[in-house]
Amino acid sequence: MEKMLKKIENVFFVFITVTGHIYLIKVLKELNISLDQLRLFLECYLIMFLVVTLGFYMILKSVGPIT
Q1: Are residues 41 and 13 in the same domain?
Q2: Model pTM greater than 0.70?
Q3: Are residues 38 and 62 in the same domain?
Q4: In which region does residue 34 sit, left (phi positive, over 0), alpha (psi from -120 to 50) or beta (all else)?
């Protein structure tokens, strides 16, 4: 049962992440910003996304399994 909940949790996390990025791309297309601004934004966003994701991963790893 616990493995099933973990799989559901992972699928939900992937779904939220993918839909959030699709919405972000849609909004960026509607803004009509220049390619240089878009490149700078995406570089900053990628760094922020990696830092936040790794931060949450480290926090969840340190807490351990939820029983």
Answers
A1: no
A2: no
A3: yes
A4: beta
Q: Output the six-digit token pair for 3.
A: 């493995």
Along the 67 residues of the chain, how does pLDDT read in single tens digits?
778 777 888 888 888 888 988 888 888 788 888 878 888 888 888 898 889 888 888 887 887 766 5
The residue written with tokens 């220049």 in the block is: 34
Task: Confirm if 1 and 11 have CB atoms less than 8 A apart.
Answer: no
What is the span of the domain harbouring residue 14? 1-32
What is the DSSP secondary-structure string of 9-67?
HHHHHHHHHHHHHHHHHHHHHHHT--HHHHHHHHHHHHHHHHHHHHHHHHHHHHH----
Task: Based on the fold, state whether residues 17 and 41 are members of the same structural domain.
Answer: no
